[in-house]
Specification:
Two copies of one chain form a homodimer. Chain A is an alpha/beta fold. Chain A contains eleven helices and ten strands. In chain A, about 40% of the residues lie in helices and about 15% in strands. In chain A, the strands form two sheets. A six-stranded parallel sheet of chain A has the order 1-6-5-4-2-3, sandwiched between helices. A four-stranded parallel sheet of chain A has the order 8-7-9-10, sandwiched between helices. Chain A starts with a strand and ends in a 15-residue tail after the last helix.
Chain lengths: ~325, ~325
């Protein structure tokens, strides 16, 4: 049976009921590879920062299979993300989860994939396959990132309690509109970005807090994978402890400025870049209107916003560089 | 009062005794910035993988202060690392820890620093300030990385129990000798590395498992901070999910091959590099003799080994590039 985002509340309730027989649920593991791992990060940070009772892991699928935490087992929920459902390491992780008696929630998009047989609950998330998503009105409040967050929020709310449950779902109902608006806002600057950075050989991405991994995804999935542009992801708080020494007029940065508790970390980077760098692009969640979402939960919505704003930049960059986002030299082509 | 590595067992015992009055210890947070954060990573992975009962955080100091986990408080141990004892964000983190009632362990090297007043226990670790450490015989079994590991191992062993306690301390007694031997082994190849990569503008570092952050430290503290060479840290398991698309004959990689449970992830990268890359340097813990340490604990010793082998490479690279490791353009020079 297939589920969707709105079923997650019931899925978590059913897992909690079923797990009573073995002593309940005491841990939640988020597992995936690359962009699918990155998309689970806001949910990981949510659990780490909001929960008083649960252990929460966030682990690359192959590492999870080779170095499985001793804690993982029948009292765990395993939530894996696998877009096409056929990433071998993530299929192996889900299979291991079932064998070890965990409740396995699979977040996926494609139908009929190999991972489906290894999940107790298959949740199909929303996704817009067009390259820049402009003009397409899918509900981003039910995408992969949000589904993972809902697993975390529901687990917390249905057991130890979560004071900002209403604010969270209010945010989930608003995020799609905020994203669509922000994407319209950046259309022109995305053109300018593509023009400016078309010939760059590397670009850094930067972010903090629960939105660190939208910077990570832009770095590894878009720049490295889809554009073959080198780079690295720098945590805004770590920047001043090593990385900032490479800052110079010709070194390009894309900086996310989050709305919420770690905003000050990102703003500090911006003031440094204003003094010592010349080539940087800023994505500011406040400018994009993310403060419409309540301050108690806004941290966890930055990732979705940035991730979906990047796609406008990405399609322009790919066009300008005449390097389609679907171009690969190894993936789908060689064995590895 | 100042302590050293061999006092950590007693420190943890005292904390556990003192915390009985408030309900015991239920969480351990490792907090620091840059290289000091990286050095705490093996201890974080130890807790995540071995413990059944403790929550463990690993967080950049400024993020910790701005987005403090709800769980953190009087039932927590906060272990911060701060080499010079004057990193403002880490001083602030330790101060917050005391204010919130946590037991604060400060790992540091310098005397008389501002952080000392914010720690309940000041542990002075061993450190060799010479640039390549060759010929200097400090006990690496009592350095920053090992001190953090001991905090984790002792907390586990003295409460829920740890089956491989004896093997861990046997490893701690062997690591210094293994390191010294490995550093002698790489002297010539470090010269060759310096010659080959002297003019490169970026270099990737790669690793997995508990040793991921020795790759991170080499990337941010040495290449970026001390040599102004751009780059990024790639997790060996993540490499095949995006990053590998940049692989080409001219793209340089430094790959750590760990001894232990995630070795297969690193070896998989190596076989790919052998096919599609030409410029890569391999640090293989097995070749360096790390298998002398018992398989049950060896994962946690890779970081110390790699970190201390890198220093031989680093001094050669700095010499060859005529860019001393102490050169900075922003740190110690401008306000930020």
């Amino acid at each position: 049976m297939e589920y969707k985002a709105s079923d997650i509340k019931g899925i978590v309730a059913e897992i909690l009921e079923n797990k009573k027989a073995v002593g309940g649920v005491d841990s939640l593991y988020f597992v995936g590879c690359g962009g699918s791992l990155g998309a689970l990060y806001p949910a990981k940070i949510f659990m780490d920062n909001e929960s008083l009772t649960y252990r929460c892991g966030w682990i690359n699928s192959n590492e999870f299979v080779h170095a499985t935490p001793k804690k993982f087992g029948k009292n765990s929920i395993l939530c894996v993300a696998c877009h096409g459902g056929d990433t071998p390491e993530t299929v192996a992780a889900a299979k291991l989860g079932k064998e070890m008696g965990a409740a396995v929630i699979v977040l996926t998009w494609k139908d009929g994939s190999p991972i489906l047989e290894h999940g107790d609950y298959i949740v199909k998330y929303t996704f817009d396959p067009s390259v820049d998503h402009l003009g397409n009105k899918i509900d981003h409040g039910a995408d992969k990132v949000m589904c993972a967050l809902m697993v975390a929020v529901e687990l917390l709310a249905q057991t130890e309690g979560y004071d900002h449950y209403a604010e969270f779902y209010d945010g989930a109902s608003k995020i799609s509109g905020i994203i669509e608006n922000a994407r319209e806002m950046v259309k022109e600057r995305a053109e300018a970005f593509a023009e400016e950075y078309a010939d760059d050989e590397f670009i850094y991405t930067m972010g903090s807090g629960a939105s660190y991994c939208s910077a990570y995804m832009e770095n590894i999935c878009i720049f490295m994978e889809m554009q073959w542009i080198n780079g690295g992801t720098i945590h805004s708080g770590e920047y001043f402890h090593g990385p900032f020494e490479v800052t110079d007029a010709d070194v390009p940065f894309v900086l996310q400025i989050a709305e919420g508790s770690t905003r000050e970390l990102d703003e500090r980077v911006l003031s440094f870049l204003k003094r010592y760098a010349k080539r940087y692009e800023v994505l500011d969640a406040r400018e994009f209107g993310l403060a419409q979402i309540d301050a108690s939960v806004v941290d966890y919505f930055n990732h979705s916003l940035f991730n979906n704003v990047y796609s406008v930049y990405n399609s322009r960059l790919a066009d300008r560089r005449q390097h389609p986002l679907s171009t690969r030299r190894y993936m789908w082509k060689v064995q590895y």
